[in-house]
Amino acid sequence: MAMWQGAMDNRGFQQGSFSSFQNSSSDEDLMDIPATAMDFSMRDDVPPLDREVGEDKSYNGGGIGYSNRIMDFLEEPIPGVGTYDDFNTIDWVREKSRDRDRHREITNKSKESTWALIHSVSDAFSGWLLMLLIGLLSGSLAGLIDISAHWMTDLKEGICTGGFWFNHEHCCWNSDHVTFEERDKCPEWNSWSQLIISTDEGAFAYIVNYFMYVLWALLFAFLAVSLVKVFAPYACGSGIPEIKTILSGFIIRGYLGKWTLVIKTITLVLAVSSGLSLGKEGPLVHVACCCGNILCHCFNKYRKNEAKRREVSYYFPLKTLWRSFFAALVAAFTLRSINPFGNSRLVLFYVEFHTPWHLFELVPFILLGIFGGLWGALFIRTNIAWCRKRKTTQLGKYPVIEVLVVTAITAILAFPNEYTRMSTSELISELFNDCGLLDSSKLCDYENRFNTSKGGELPDRPAGVGVYSAMWQLALTLILKIVITIFTFGMKIPSGLFIPSMAVGAIAGRLLGVGMEQLAYYHQEWTIFNSWCSQGADCITPGLYAMVGAAACLGGVTRMTVSLVVIMFELTGGLEYIVPLMAAAMTSKWVADALGREGIYDAHIRLNGYPFLEAKEEFAHKTLAMDVMKPRRNDPLLTVLTQDSMTVEDVETIISETTYSGFPVVVSRESQRLVGFVLRRDLIISIENARKKQDGVVSTSIIYFTEHSPPLPPYTPPTLKLRNILDLSPFTVTDLTPMEIVVDIFRKLGLRQCLVTHNGRLLGIITKKDVLKHIAQMANQDPDSILFN
């Protein structure tokens, strides 16, 4: 058969029951989601549009004895018709057509009255107002999350007696007993050992602080995973794979809902504060999309059109670009007003390097790119293998235990090392830092063998004891981050990958940068140095190597290039280092692509079986539409409806015996001449609505999809005219169309199905799922691996 197989198990269509379509089938066959997600009863977050059937008593039709009049109850729109079930793909072409019709109607009416003109202006302005609200809400939530996470991270080590709501840094800002060298130590900030046993010295105090650190980490992690499991299972993970799928037209109700937003905001703070190897940048994308989706329901043109909510998906018109820029501007202004980083800047890791890079340094930068590509490929393979094990074994049934075990291991191993004990954002900031004379960090513990410095620049210096100690600690930190991130990403808590990936690269870059710096100092006479690095000059900047390494590892994991460099600009403000960043990012992508074509988010999309067509992949196989379409040879015939010869009972029988999401309409079963395509959901709603409005409609009533109907004998039951729910221009291709073109059509037009004809006769149908299965089969993959679960 040629249609989509159902997501939910639709066992039949109950006459007189309007609820049957709620569990109707999906256009993506054999959809399944975990049991926890099935318990997630939050469909009200994104309600099916205008779902309730109205109580309009008027109809155009007659009862028995008036059969010459056709009941065309679709002269007025029926609530629910034209909307979509959960786990369905939207019809982009139909949605854009409806929006154009709506806009045309508003424009025409604006010439008739002043009120209509005002309505037209408000409709045009609503997009900008929506962007303003999204920017304000997203920026406010981002600032709240940053401030809360900073405070709760410091809570694991102590508390401010001058005000418990102050984090460590803010607590010591106004203290009169702080020295510059020990600016993080002040009487107002007390560690847990000072509060419990009144001392911070000795082995017992260390044990107390150790115990409290692990205890707080476990508490935060337990609260995070419990809130996600009980209230919003969709709040777990990064959210970016699902966002990409939703933007491509797939519907996952509740994923961008209000409960998901609330729980993800709270649990993101808890997860980051627990000290796990995860970041908040990816989940913040999910939070921002939730803000946009919720606010869309305040505006009629977005609430009633699924495509309008996804304008940035298959195309990016100029008006959307400007509106996106405006929303980003408002969010940045809001974030600047909140000042969550405490440095009066919009960037998280502001850098200010005093020494320009030299052309020779492209060699170590490219080496960092190679490392980033290798790390990215290794991480993707091992993380996907672990996530697949979680999905296919008993491990997936115990998410709370898994999170607590990983948190306990992370906290126990992290506390003894100051670089793993601090938050990952603080670690990256310290690694990016360019050492100055007054820096007290161990990374800046150099031997000062100079009398003067020019322009505030410090010459390269021999490393001191603190630097060597920091190198060993950073090497251990690198190993821990590489291993523990594999098991952390994908757990049932909000978890981003940007910051952990950047941390791995920044550590590797700093280690390489210090090594290059010492080589330049002790072997200045070498040919590679003496042409551009003079004695006593500041030649090598280890912080720059850390920044390049961070970009390389992030690129290896995500396979981003241009956007990655832009992100690094946003995070650091280092605009003058575009060449090193691009060199590392491109090298990282090339190396990682040589070992595996997928980035981490694409790999998780494939692992979860989301119906997503990657626009960047080329389809180079010489197959035809007839090779992919359903039905195949020896398959049952294609299930179709005829335009003027089927009764209500016939249609209801087809609906109850099949799980397809739509049916082609033909002139007759003999001719198989295509007339159009009708959705299962629209059929069910329309028949239900007709039965409620007209008592004369019975099982023997004829359904017409034609413009006019022939005269009928007296005392014949009223007929139903359903032409208005019929798509008269379904997308069609011939049976000899190359699949390369068909795949391109599905990608660029966002089709959910395409009908296959031969000389105007209907032969079969190709769905988005069929295309995905065919691509997997051509790549020697299991076609069933793309089933949504």
TrEMBL record:
The chain crosses the membrane at residues 125-145, 210-235, 256-278, 284-300, 321-339, 359-380, 400-417, 470-490, 497-516, 544-569. Its main location: membrane. This is Chloride channel protein. Gene3D superfamilies: 3.10.580.20, 3.90.1280.20, Clc chloride channel. Proton-coupled chloride transporter. Functions as antiport system and exchanges chloride ions against protons. Important for normal acidification of the endosome lumen. May play an important role in renal tubular function. The CLC channel family contains both chloride channels and proton-coupled anion transporters that exchange chloride or another anion for protons. The absence of conserved gating glutamate residues is typical for family members that function as channels. PROSITE patterns: CBS. It is found in: Cell membrane; Endosome membrane; Golgi apparatus membrane; Membrane. It comes from the Eukaryota. Coiled coil: none annotated. Signal peptide: none annotated. It comes from Papio anubis.
